[in-house]
Write a structure and sequence with these properties.
It is a single chain. By secondary structure, this protein is an alpha+beta fold. The protein folds into two domains: about 15-210, Immunoglobulin-like (Sandwich); about 210-245, no CATH class. It has helices at about 1-15, 105-110, 115-120, 135-150, 210-225, 225-250; strands at about 20-25, 30, 40-50, 60-65, 70-80, 85-95, 100-105, 155-160, 165, 170-175, 185-195, 195-210. A six-stranded mixed β-sheet has the order 2-12-11-4-7-8. A four-stranded antiparallel β-sheet has the order 1-3-10-9, with no helix packed on it. A two-stranded antiparallel sheet has the order 5-6. Strand 5 and strand 6 (about 85-95) form a beta hairpin. Helix 5 crosses helix 6 (about 225-250). The radius of gyration is 24 Å and the shape is globular. Residues about 1-15 have low confidence and may be disordered.
């Protein structure tokens, strides 16, 4: 009984020492309208004790912003007889449409590979699960290809030494959302890490939504796909005919 009570007291003291995170974000709603060129989000907060006091300790902060998950089909191209053709392919069940991670130091200096994989901290630690069986080497190749493609398009990013700490209590980081981001709910998760261990985490959310004419067109396309397709083809034919007539008059 004494041993059990001692263990419970030790667990209580250990839990009391762990800090809490109080995060916030500069915009909880982002409106996408005509001429939208992207926006920059400010993610900030404080590291406190459960009693609301300044937390003592040396902490690293990692902030991860992830967009809606979606299935993605990847096709690998190969050069055959001087031409590029589709070769192997795979489908990923739930790849983030947007992924950005910022940290106070390089992630490899903050946590080990196992912890990074558990919390998906860093582009190399994304868990991109394929449908069906696939060779591990091929899976790694496809995952690296997707990451590289999304990174070059501005939808995946990793910035180290990008979280600013003030007095060991306040933190802030900036993450850019490009104009091509998908609409939906984005999750911003903040981690406080010390000695390679995640001691606190907190989540905030931001919604990206279309408004005005963009929203009306998107709603019409979703609800009336057949008529939207016919209208698109009709407009393309009409524009082509008008352009042909104009060039004929020149």
């Amino acid at each position: 009984m004494r041993v059990l009570l001692a263990l419970l007291a030790l667990l209580a003291l250990t839990g009391a020492r762990d800090p809490i995170l109080v995060p916030d974000i500069s915009q909880h709603e982002i409106e996408v309208r005509q001429g939208f060129t992207g926006t920059e989000l400010l993610l900030y907060g404080a590291i406190l004790t459960p009693e609301g006091q300044r937390a003592n300790g040396d902490y690293d902060i990692v902030v991860l912003l992830e967009g809606p998950l979606k299935p993605i089909v990847l096709r690998e191209k190969r050069r055959v007889a001087g031409m590029w053709v589709n070769a192997d392919s795979t489908t990923l069940r739930s790849a983030p449409s947007y992924y950005a991670v910022v940290s106070s130091r390089p992630i490899r200096q903050i946590v080990d590979e196992r912890t990074a994989a558990i919390y998906e901290l860093g582009l190399g630690s994304l868990q991109l699960s394929p449908t069906g069986a696939i060779d591990p080497a091929a899976q790694s190749r496809f995952a690296a290809g997707l990451t590289d493609l999304m990174r070059r398009s501005g939808l995946y990013s990793q910035s180290e030494n990008a979280v600013t700490m003030t007095g060991g209590v306040l933190y802030r980081a900036r993450i850019y959302l490009p104009s091509r981001v998908q609409t939906g709910v984005y999750t911003a998760e903040t981690f406080a890490i010390t000695r390679g261990r995640v001691v606190a985490s907190a989540t905030t959310r931001v919604e990206v939504k279309k408004i005005g004419m963009e929203k009306a067109i998107a709603d019409f396309a979703r609800r009336h796909g057949f008529w939207y397709g016919l209208l698109t083809v009709g407009l393309s034919v009409a524009m082509g005919w008008i352009a042909g007539r104009l060039f004929a008059l020149v």
